[in-house]
Amino acid sequence: MSLATLYSRARVGVASPLVTVETHISNGLPSLNIVGLPEAAVREAKDRVRSAIINSHFEFPTRRVTINLAPADLPKEGGRYDLAIAISVLAASGQLGEINLRGFEFIGELALSGEVRGVPGLLPSAIACHQSNRQLILPEENQQEAALVEGDAVFAKHLTQVTAHLLKQSLLPACLVKPSEPLPLEHKDMKDVKGQYQARRALEVAAAGGHNLLFIGPAGTGKTMLASRLPSIMPVMTEEEALAVASVQSVAGRKMGLDWHWSERPFRSPHHSCSAAALVGGGSIPKPGEASLAHCGVLFLDELPEFDRKVLEVLREPLENGEVHISRARGQVTFPARFQLVAAMNASNEAYTGGQDYYQSSASQKYLKKLSAPFLDRIDLHVEVPPLPSTILVNAQEEGESSEVIRQRVEVAVERQRARQGLRNNQLSGRQLETICALNDADKAFMQQALETLKLSARAYHRVLKVALTLADLSACEVQRKHLMESLSYRKMEKTLTSVAS
User: What is the CATH number of the domain that holds 322?
Assistant: First the structure.
C-alpha cells in the first residue's frame, strides 16, 4: 500500500471540522512534504513524526512522502495532527498491514520519543467524533475531557500503544473521568443578604427568565454581594448546556482538574480596564473572551461607567444574538456567548450625599453620560439599591430565604417556560412574544400610556413584556395587570438614565 487515508479534526472556534489526512509514498529522493494550508507548527510536524517513528522501532520510508490535509482551504495549526500523520505514514508504508482506518479518528501531539502529548480544545472534537460514529484515539492527558461525551474514545501514552490497538494486539483503555475530590466552591447564599428586598426580587426574576440586570446605588449598599449570589439561584444546567460550557473552557485552554467545576454555571467578573478583545474575544488566532467564558452563566461588570464606552458597545451583538462573530483575514470564527449580564454602578463618582437630587446632580449627570442609551436599552431590569437603614445593619435580623428555596421556585418557572415554548423568556422573538403574551384591550391601553410616559423604545417594550411573562411564570398564571406594573417598575430609572446618556 502506497496510499493511506484516515481522519483527524481541526479546531475552529468551538467547531471541529473533519480533516482527512492522505499520505502517498512514491519513488524519488527521500523527502516529506505537507500540503493543505499548514501553519508553522504543522509544517514542523515532519521532524517530530520522523523521530517518533524511528524511536518507536518502526522504519521511516526513504522515499518521497507527500501528506495532504484536506480540505485544502482550511488553515491547520498546532500539533494535533502529529498522531494522524504518523499513523498514515506507517499505513502507507505497509508497516501496519492491510487494516481499515476509516472507523477511527486520531488527535494528539507526538514527542520525539513517540510519547503522545495532550492538545488544547479537544472536547469539541470528541463531540463531533461521537456524532460521526467513529472511535477517537487521543492522548491520556485529554481523557477526562473526552469522557464527558458518551462516545467510543480511547487514550494512549505512546505511539506503539496506538499501533498495537489498531493491529488488535492489545486494546487501549476507554476514557474515564478520574475520581477526585474537587476544591470546594465558595458557598454564597442569598440568606446572607440583609434587607434589599426589591433587589432580591429582581435577582429571582432575572434567574427565572434569563434577564439582564443593572444595579444602581451608592457604594457599599451590597450590589456586588447581590450579583455574586445570582448563580446560586439559577436553574441547574442541562447536559447540553454543561457540554457547551465545557467546550468553551476547553477551547480556551483550560483543562479538567481540581479547580474546574464544569457542571456549575460560570461567573466572570472582568476588571473595568479590560480591552474589547479581552471582553468578546480576539487575537490573530481567535480565542474566546470573557463574554464567551460566561456562556450559560453570569457576566458581571462592576463599576459599569468606568469601562471604556467602545468596549461596552461590543457587547451589543452577544446581548441580542447570544453569539460573538470574530472576523480575521484568515477566516471567521463564532463563539457562543449567551450569558446574563449583571452590571453595577454608582450614580456618581463622588461621595454619596443622600437626598432626592442624588441622581440629578451635575456630578451624576456627567458620570452617567459615559453610558450610551442603546446599551442601557438592552438591559431588562434597572434596580435601585439604596443605603440600608442603620437599624437593619446593627440589629439582629431574621435570615431571609436561602438560595435553595429561591432556586426551587426558579426551577418551576423555567420548566413552565420550556414546556410552553421550548426556550427561556429572554430568548423569545417579537412574534412569539405577541402570541404567548397576548394582552386584552384594557392592558394594551395601559401599556400604550406607559410607553408614552416613560418614552420607551420598541426594544424596551418587548423587554417589559418578557419580564412580565416571567413574573407570571413565577406565579404560575397568565400575564395580568399587576405583572405589567411590576415589570414597568423595574424600568423606573429609564428616564433618568437615558435622558443623560447619548
Answer: 3.40.50.300
